[in-house]
Amino acid sequence: MAERNSAILLVRCPDAKGLVAGVSGFLYEHGANILSTDEHRDDETRQFLMRVEWDLEDFGLEPGEFARAFESAVARRFGMQWRVAYAREPLRVAVFVSKYLHCLSDLLHRRREGELRADIRLVVSNHEEAAALAGFYNVPFHHIPVTPASKAEAERRQLELLEREEIDLVVLARYMQVLSPQFVARYPARIINVHHSFLPAFSGARPYQAAFERGVKLIGATAHYVTEELDEGPIIEQEVVRVSHRDQLADMIEKGRDAERLALARAVRWHTEHRILLDGRKTVVFV
Amino acid sequence: MAERNSAILLVRCPDAKGLVAGVSGFLYEHGANILSTDEHRDDETRQFLMRVEWDLEDFGLEPGEFARAFESAVARRFGMQWRVAYAREPLRVAVFVSKYLHCLSDLLHRRREGELRADIRLVVSNHEEAAALAGFYNVPFHHIPVTPASKAEAERRQLELLEREEIDLVVLARYMQVLSPQFVARYPARIINVHHSFLPAFSGARPYQAAFERGVKLIGATAHYVTEELDEGPIIEQEVVRVSHRDQLADMIEKGRDAERLALARAVRWHTEHRILLDGRKTVVFV
Amino acid sequence: MAERNSAILLVRCPDAKGLVAGVSGFLYEHGANILSTDEHRDDETRQFLMRVEWDLEDFGLEPGEFARAFESAVARRFGMQWRVAYAREPLRVAVFVSKYLHCLSDLLHRRREGELRADIRLVVSNHEEAAALAGFYNVPFHHIPVTPASKAEAERRQLELLEREEIDLVVLARYMQVLSPQFVARYPARIINVHHSFLPAFSGARPYQAAFERGVKLIGATAHYVTEELDEGPIIEQEVVRVSHRDQLADMIEKGRDAERLALARAVRWHTEHRILLDGRKTVVFV
Amino acid sequence: MAERNSAILLVRCPDAKGLVAGVSGFLYEHGANILSTDEHRDDETRQFLMRVEWDLEDFGLEPGEFARAFESAVARRFGMQWRVAYAREPLRVAVFVSKYLHCLSDLLHRRREGELRADIRLVVSNHEEAAALAGFYNVPFHHIPVTPASKAEAERRQLELLEREEIDLVVLARYMQVLSPQFVARYPARIINVHHSFLPAFSGARPYQAAFERGVKLIGATAHYVTEELDEGPIIEQEVVRVSHRDQLADMIEKGRDAERLALARAVRWHTEHRILLDGRKTVVFV
């Protein structure tokens, strides 16, 4: 995807007549060259969700002006929750990982290739295996061991790092620790986890073992936002891989990695491109 | 999908500022409750394509008024090609078939289930096998044999039927005859064919035989609009099925049927829901 | 798949040396022209499972002789459970259905096309909707209403029909009634159900509603053998379809039908081709 | 997959009675504990192909003895072409790459994870981009520039490296140079290439450009053995990814990388596990 000097507006409000006209009319008045418009109406919740991206060339409003002008001209009238993001300011990302490095390796490579336009600021791990990989991609690595006794202190150190680096998004790339509700509450809809099953099947620990024992014919992976309830957060993406009786547990784990890599990479990409909106406990993904 | 008393506007024009604002503003002024908006900008051709669907309740313009008002208020200004369709007037469809009945059976069943909201007016075949199936679903069946000598006369009879029934869409559901350029020219972007390969691979005759000989690991089916050039029309949908060395030619043909059914059913559905726009030799499918 | 005058031997026993040699040596001695051999060793249970198919031309043993000879020469030595089937004797199948007819229509059409080589002897339903469809395909239809009060009597009538027709396989093609444990016990590993979710996710009632509420990005269908525990029987096949926030509940139900059709059709086909072996609570499918 | 001290026998010969009995009987006599048997009969060519893997514990024949004994006891009688491989001797692999590093990165990571049991001895490139990545994974890197004038000399140097390192398999992981027929002839069925299209569609140069222009709805990648005819060698694996009108050329290239990675990784894995047999211009893959 070509680099663009664009702005992205994300909107949520009760559905009403005139919403698309209101937003697009406002942008037009200020000279916006719209690149894409996506919208969704949730028939159940009667919510309206919208994403508009426009080229900033010729656009008449500076970021500070935009907020004031949009709020008074459009947002207030429709009771909108909204935020605007700028493509030239990539999100600042922290990746948490334990011993399995396939997702981390995949994300770092995609970052280098330019597929993922994110500013990966740091890798945090309770183990040391990821240090060399992070180093190879020039990302600072922080080893923060976690034991039941040290967990609170470990989270304190992690949060300190996240704040210092002004992290926008935390990616749990097979991080085998459960974050405390306090931690999660600090980054609402800003922590993405990949669970190694097709949720809601096989939530919790050892999903491949459970899938193997149940004799399923497809295994999966799920990327989702982390909420207080384990494995219950809004699903962003899911991927499956076919298995058969020939696949032993170890084979399922290996095949599952491909699903994990793909589901997580897409979720992180969509988040960093501001394509995901929360809609209750679901996601709306504009792709 | 619930039945809706809605209108669908399809637009194509050169890209310009103010397009979304122009269309949505016009609809808002006339009281439209917009159900969905989709748009696409082709970066190469600089064309803008749009589909808007709105609820007709509260809408202030009758079909006749709409055309005049939209043309003068919006379309002229942007040089738009446009058309409007009404969900309460389902397209009138003719299905052409030869001896293989899996696609016909699938379409007729989907029609009965309500998945496909089309008015299937007639089944035309150069063979008699389909007569009973058409009869079971209460669709008039017309047996029009085709030989090299009788082809012109056969097409004349087919066209007469299509005109008499005011057919909007012709579906070639494994119709093993090539239509003449004259026939095709009468129904531009209104004839959908399913080709039993993953185009452009294996165009022309006996694609499964060719796929089998080449030793491919996936076989496919392609639903496309028919143009003068055989198998070269704009692709609407493609589907694939995995095969292996275990699959003999007969197995490929059987497995391929599932891909054919799915690709054709989706294409016909999208066409009848006015979701497809032509963009040069490609399609834009708003789903 | 071409019609073959073949025999299929299915074997299960504790793993041991010499099993393949023992079976293939026996068949060779009696002139068998082997068409395919498949085997599986379960690393956990240490069970060996095998399927051999051979051409009966030149084969020196009649069905009656085969049993005696194989038992004494091979089976006893390895403690084998085994059975032999003959391709020229297609299984006798009963299809149970309620109001949704897409799976029934699909199975009957595949039977007519020759994809499914089964002798579909009867359709049983607690509703009358399927009568015409069964009639069109010349399959006797039996309307057996089921209420809480009449369930025992209904099952008695169903079992009587199954026995009278010497049914080998019962297919629950979206039959919305739970069979009693007594009924299930009469047809162990001989009742195939299609559940409209990706099991074990969304077992029980209203799986599409649950999937819709959870906001999953893939929906599925599962064909499995029926056991006493609802939705817990050995899984034969699973299929998934991608969905998005655009899909309302009704759309999920429609898309899910394609997964249901495919999963059930494959499972029934594999069973009738004697390709499925039970391995504890899992299936081994030799395809 | 667990490490096994196993032997793998690959056999090809004209189909005949007694083949499975002959091979399995021979192995049984010498104490083999068979782990898996796979076989295929090609109905057209009347060839029989077989793969047997057995545990070497308790097996009574040393590698040298095996060849002589198997040849005289079994292979000669059936006119077999055969070879045996030992899991404890991983294949020696060279990876050729140009500027695109996604496949190389993927293979090296899978090697480190233990998914790919191959001894990657060297990376060869006509560019320098891959040097750091190879270094990170401790694989010697050789920069051999190729120009039209220097191509013959470059290939001479490449072949020298391959011979010195006793390379068994050459992997073209997006190596953008065409190898000479002389080079290819030195490694028959031992060079695997990944072509960035769904062959035979879009063979030759710039397949994504061609796919984009044609407006396909699925793009693909093909891993195949290299033969003298460009993109015409036996196909090992194919993978596809769904695209839409929203995907510009750059998006297709990015999405296609996932298909390339997966198709190539599977092909290399299967080759190194001795799971692929040639059958005319097709492959038989025992997985």
Notes on the protein architecture:
The structure is a homotetramer. Chain A is about 35% helix and about 30% strand. Chain A is α/β, with parallel strands linked by helices and about 290 residues long. Chain A has two domains: about 5-85, ACT domain (Alpha-Beta Plaits, 2-Layer Sandwich), CATH 3.30.70.260; about 90-285, Rossmann fold. In chain A, strands 7-6-5-8-9-10-11 form a seven-stranded mixed beta sheet. In chain A, helix 3 runs parallel beside helix 8 (about 250-270). The longest helix of chain A has 24 residues, at about 250-270. The interface between C and D is medium-sized, with 18 and 18 residues.
Largest sheet: number of strands, sense, barrel closure of chain A: 7 strands, mixed
| Rg value of chain A | 20 Å
Kindly report how far apart the N and C termini of chain A lie: 13 Å
CATH architecture term of the largest domain in chain A: 3-Layer(aba) Sandwich
Tally of extended strands of chain A? 13
Instruction: Please tell me the overall pLDDT of chain A.
Output: 96
Uncertain runs of chain A are none
Element pattern of chain A in H and E: EHEEHEEHEHEHEHEHEEHEE
Protein structure class of chain A:
alpha/beta
* Oligomeric state of the chains present here: homotetramer
Shape of chain A: globular
- Fraction of residues in β-strands of chain A: 25-35%
Give the helix proportion of chain A (percent range).
Answer: 25-40%
According to CATH, the homologous superfamily of the largest domain in chain A is Formyl transferase, N-terminal domain
CATH class placement of the largest domain in chain A? Alpha Beta
Question: Which topology of the largest domain in chain A does CATH recognise?
Answer: Rossmann fold
Largest interface in this structure: A-C, 30 and 30 residues
In spatial order, strands of the major sheet of chain A run 7-6-5-8-9-10-11
Our count of domains of chain A comes out at 2
* Total number of helices of chain A: 8
